[in-house]
Amino acid sequence: MFSTAAKNPFAPNAPVPQTLKIVLCTLVPDGGEGSPEAINPRLLDGPERERAARFVFARDGWSYAAAHALLRAMLAEFHGLPPLAWRFRDNGHGRPEVDPAITPSSAPRFNISHTHGMAVCALTAGTLPEGFEIGVDAECLDRSPDCQALADRYFSSSESECLRSLPPAKLDAEFLRLWTLKEAVAKATGLGLGLDFRTFQCSVNPLSVAFDSPGWGPSNAWDLQNWSVDPRHWVSLAVRRPPGTLINLEVRHLRGTP
Ligand SMILES: CC(C)(COP(=O)(O)OP(=O)(O)OC[C@H]1O[C@@H](n2cnc3c(N)ncnc32)[C@H](O)[C@@H]1OP(=O)(O)O)[C@@H](O)C(=O)NCCC(=O)NCCS
Q: Could you tell me the fold of the domain covering 1-7+18-132+241-258?
């Protein structure tokens, strides 16, 4: 539930639910499609700068560099250590996580996404309850795949039927919206595309997810949000948290460099 905890005036002694702050930032280039040189190099370590420079297309280097610089800038702002002090380790499925040696008591959780013309980072800014997970995905509506064929192949049958019922003019945008929701959920599980997209259903109205198997928790353990940040981009956020925990979500839309 995305909301802010407040004392219940009818039961002032009732326990106040735990509230967890999450900050989500989107970043777009300041004009054009961006290039890695546009990103402040003091927000990237050596391997990140090298990888950003290796992309064939400068715009891909920009979005990679922008996402990693955004992450380091946000970690510094909300968790105190300078941007380059942060180190990461792989969860075994490709997802970087804060090295627990950096913040032994409670490592912040984050997830990043980069696509044409946009970088996104979602970060926790408080003490985490057990079982908390976060995933974010951004996609750009700049390609023309056969959306219905992709949905028939990769989505659950109810999702693909739902898309089939839409007017053709709405199909691409709604497919992309659903795709970002499903990918944000998959990234929150830590498996990414290793999770079979046919084994869980996302809905946009109301925003929800339901898994075929109980392992990833009941639907009420999940909160989803999504935004059409501009006419080309969809961004989705998926949060799994203990039922009853409230989420205080801060969203920032930035331009240029973090
Ligand atoms: C992560 C993945 C979903 C990417 O989707 P995408 O739309 O192309 O990319 P996005 O921009 O949304 O996200 C990429 C970021 O997600 C993060 N990420 C990588 N693997 C992830 C995972 N399993 N779960 C959550 N997040 C992951 C990374 O930070 C990555 O950015 P980086 O490589 O610059 O650090 C997809 O590539 C994937 O599932 N990878 C898993 C790879 C894998 O199975 N590896 C097995 C290793 S044994």
A: Ribosomal Protein L22; Chain A (3.90.470)
Which of 63, 93, 179 most suits a substitution to test ligand 1, by most atoms within 8 Å of the C-beta? 93
| DSSP per residue, 31-78 | SSS--GGGS-GGGS-HHHHHHHHH-SSHHHHHHHHHHHHHHHHHHHHH
Cα 135 to ligand 1 centre (Å)? 10
pLDDT below 50 — which residues of the chain? none
Locate all alpha helices (DSSP H) within 117-200, ordered by sequence. 147-154, 157-164, 168-189
pLDDT digits (tens, 9 = 90+) for 139-149: 998 877 789 99
From the list 218, 144, 138, 216, the residue with the least C-alpha distance to 181 is 138
Atom of ligand 1 nearest to the CA of 191: 23
Cβ of residue 113 lying under 6 Å from some atom of ligand 1: yes
Per-domain residue ranges for the chain? 1-7+18-132+241-258
Report how far ligand 1's centroid is from the alpha carbon of 17 (Å): 32
Look at the pTM and tell me if it is higher than 0.85.
yes
Give, using CA atoms, the residue closest to atom 47 of ligand 1.
Answer: 93
Angle at the Cα of 142 from the Cα atoms of 250 and 70, rounded to 5 degrees:
35
